[in-house]
Amino acid sequence: MPTREIIRSEWKAYFDEFSRARAGERVTVELIHDPQTDPQFTLHRQPLVGISFEEKGSGEGQIEIIAGGETSDSLTHAITHPVHVYHKNARGLISDEVNVDEVLEITSTDDPRITFLRFEPA
Question: Which end of the chain has the lower number of beta carbons within 10 A, N or C?
Fold first, then answer.
């Protein structure tokens, strides 16, 4: 399956379902500040707790990624001012794009410009 864009009006439902389906899977979060430099890793192979799109409150409009072990050990990464969300499902599908992991790419008007979430196959 080639990369597909998830439209903004579907983000909340998409992330809710994605989180239910992938809870506990290992995720690596890479931040791309400048395409000419190496990515910065904020989470590396941590179990996914969930991804949410905040529609209300102080975090309105941002995407939050929560991963880690016990609640006290979990880490939250917030993406402010997200613009696009792309999904590449690599789970055994033949595609014109080659990728071992399942990937979500989130672009933002803020720094970092691109956040990659890489999910390892089970």
Answer: C
* Residues 64-114 pLDDT 10s: 999 987 666 788 899 999 999 999 876 544 444 445 568 899 999 988 889
d(CA 38, CA 78): 20
Residues in the chain, overall count: 122
Distance set, CA 32 to CA 13, 28, 51, 59, 113 (Å) = 26, 13, 19, 22, 6
Average pLDDT, the chain: 84
> Which one-letter amino acid corresponds to residue 95?
S
Query: Is the pLDDT at 16 greater than 90, yes or no?
Result: yes
CA triple 63-2-17, angle to 5 deg: 40
Torsion angle of alpha carbons 96, 88, 41, 56, nearest 10°? 160
Name the nearest CA neighbour of 12 among 48, 57, 61, 45: 61
The rounded distance, in Å, linking the Cα atoms of 48 and 20 is 10
